[in-house]
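hi! just following up on the protien thing from before. the input was this:
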Amino acid sequence: MTGPLKSWLDVALSDLAPAARDRMTAEYHAHVQDATHSGLTEPEAVATLGDPTQVNRALRRTYATEKLAAQYRTPSRRLWRVLLLLYVGYTSLMILNNLEDRADLLRHLPGPLTGLTLLLALMALMKLHPTSYTWTLGARMLVLPLMTGQWITALITPGRDTLDLSFLIVLPFALVGMVWNAHCTARRVHRTLKLDGQA
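and the predicted 3d structure came back as:
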């Protein structure tokens, strides 16, 4: 590979996972070859590829970086088991603390139970469809069950102050943003690992 193209690729493909880097190197190399066969000099052909920094930013929105792909290549099943045990313990503690007052129990139980249900649903999704997409999606949404449970508890608890009301209003938007970010990240990781035959 010649100097102008190599220098451009070093910037444009910086930090991308190896599989994505190899794929894009082949594509850009073919593009430059076609351009030179059409009569352009190599520097002119490389210039048609655009600003390598902007290309790098665009590619990072499509493919995972090397660090991100390595982080989610293998699911951490132990982490999920520990999290499940902690959440079951948290739900049990809420029940024990409010056994004497039925009204308190009814107010404090729906939140933890909803969170536990969401956690089990995420685990079931990962088990039924064990792909890099579901592993990454689940890992990026670890706090979703807890935060949703807290939101439901705050929603049905009387005597809310301004801070509670702010929490009730802001949290749903934050959770939607978190889910969307998790989905986009999971797609990037899955797309990248698929190139390497690991998805």
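The chain has two domains: 3-63, 74-195.
The chain has eleven helices and no strands.
cheers
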